[in-house]
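Lecture notes, continued. The same structure-token format from the folding unit now serves as the input rather than the output. Read the line below as a description of shape only.
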């Protein structure tokens, strides 16, 4: 996978140094060559909003010059969710190392992921890309490791069609699934039953053209059109960028085939939900610091202890939708307890038993793709790093290991295990009470955490106030 620019990650001298200027000019030259080679007429500048959606501004290709790369393009930050954290006049500046080619309705377009700056050119502390880069830098600065390595699993549904309405006098959803039967095991099923095989192949080819390493893909457990794509390992900022790209590719590829794709955690009741499981480890000199003679090192156990100690507040960022908690229920391999164990899919953290020594890792299974990946991945690493710095050894704290199905434990034993939040209000309350670990090293600005809680609390209130269709079937005739 191609590295994001070191300038974004904070490893180069400050903006304006001779080395950075020389590298920027070289990258700009390469970008112009790519524009000419593809006969691209437009350049697309993508930037993530606070919630985790991509927004974009498109300019004629001829306008990509040194001045634009230096000063950026102005935009109103209030429309992207950033109002209240800083003034609304912000600029987006392309990270030239993130260039990629897109074809939109037969038009070749060169696309860049952008950083956010204030109007005077200084970095915007609330920029999610900056936060992701700062989290990586924090791990290095503290001497914990020299690299963060992440590998997410993307689960999503593809449907023939979805129609939904939410107005004062009409509320409901109608889904047309790819398969008509939900009583057959579709996990890893082959064609012709696997109707998504060609689509996933196309998606993965597009992903690999971007230099993103695909590990494999397959039909997931959900029989009504659930898919999974798993990636190789990359750095935190790189993987957050890749997450945004992959979600966009999946939805676009599905639409091109007359289908629709969603990363919603629980689009269908009583069916498997879609998570964003994140495999992760810290490394030094290319070797996992989580490895110790075939088992987990003390650093790994403290990293686990950090994540599980801050688990409830972490879910305010990794599971930030009301729909997230419809997935986190017993019976669907969705964890509801803050524990860890080898090969245990009912635990919040699974320790894969098949990992090689140089990629000894853990898998956090609670999150889902309604998150802003820059913030979610950064928060995971900050929680784990805090565990290492404060020696929060997971076994000593009673988080495990558990080798059994946690749902099969007697109730009195389950009651001793810290439960995950059961709804968004609990997760946001936990985040409001416990977020100092995010502020270490000036990684997360306090104002952004407060703004996030404000925005997500408003979403929660809107859902809570709206009558649910199920309520009509339960109570209309009472």
């Amino acid at each position: 996978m191609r590295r994001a620019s070191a300038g974004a990650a904070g490893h180069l001298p400050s903006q304006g140094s001779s080395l950075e200027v020389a590298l920027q000019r070289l990258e700009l030259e390469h970008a112009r060559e790519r524009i000419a080679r593809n006969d691209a007429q437009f350049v697309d500048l993508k930037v993530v909003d606070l919630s985790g959606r991509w927004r974009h501004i498109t300019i004629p290709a001829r306008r990509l010059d040194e001045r634009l790369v230096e000063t950026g393009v102005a935009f109103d930050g209030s429309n992207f969710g950033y109002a209240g954290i800083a003034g609304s006049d912000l600029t987006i500046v392309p990270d030239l190392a993130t260039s990629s080619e897109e074809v939109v309705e037969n038009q070749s377009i060169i696309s860049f992921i952008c950083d956010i700056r204030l109007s005077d050119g200084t970095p915007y502390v609330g920029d999610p890309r900056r936060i992701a880069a700062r989290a990586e830098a924090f791990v290095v600065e503290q001497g914990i490791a020299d690299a963060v390595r992440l590998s997410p699993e993307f689960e999503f549904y593809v449907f023939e069609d979805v129609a939904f309405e939410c107005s004062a006098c009409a509320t409901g959803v109608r889904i047309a699934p790819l398969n008509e039967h939900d009583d057959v095991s579709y996990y890893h099923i082959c064609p012709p039953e696997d109707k998504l095989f060609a689509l996933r192949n196309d998606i993965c080819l597009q992903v690999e053209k971007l230099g993103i390493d695909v590990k494999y893909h397959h039909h997931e457990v959900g029989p009504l059109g659930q898919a999974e794509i798993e990636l190789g390992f990359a750095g935190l900022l790189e993987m957050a960028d890749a997450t945004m790209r992959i979600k966009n590719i999946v939805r676009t590829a599905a639409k091109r085939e007359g289908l629709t794709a969603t990363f919603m955690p629980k689009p269908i009741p009583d069916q498997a939900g879609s998570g964003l499981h994140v495999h992760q480890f810290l490394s030094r000199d290319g070797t996992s610091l989580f490895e110790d003679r075939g088992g987990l090192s003390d650093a790994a156990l403290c990293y686990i202890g950090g994540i599980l100690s801050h688990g409830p507040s972490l879910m305010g960022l990794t599971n930030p939708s009301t729909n997230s908690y419809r997935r986190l229920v017993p019976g669907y391999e969705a964890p509801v307890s803050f524990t860890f164990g080898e090969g245990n899919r009912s635990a919040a953290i699974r320790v894969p038993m098949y990992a090689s020594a140089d990629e000894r890792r853990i898998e956090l299974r609670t999150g889902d793709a309604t998150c802003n990946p820059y913030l979610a991945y950064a928060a995971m690493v900050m929680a784990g790093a805090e565990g290492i710095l404060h020696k929060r050894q997971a076994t000593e704290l009673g988080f495990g290991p558990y080798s059994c199905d946690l749902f099969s434990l007697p109730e009195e034993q389950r009651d001793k295990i810290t439960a995950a939040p059961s709804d968004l209000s609990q997760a946001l309350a936990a985040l409001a009470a416990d977020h100092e670990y995010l502020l270490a090293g000036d990684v997360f600005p306090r104002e952004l955490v407060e703004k996030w809680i404000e925005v997500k609390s408003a979403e929660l209130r809107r859902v809570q106030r709206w009558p649910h269709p199920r309520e009509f079937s339960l109570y209309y005739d009472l």
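Point for the exam: Residues 1-15 have pLDDT under 50 and may be disordered.
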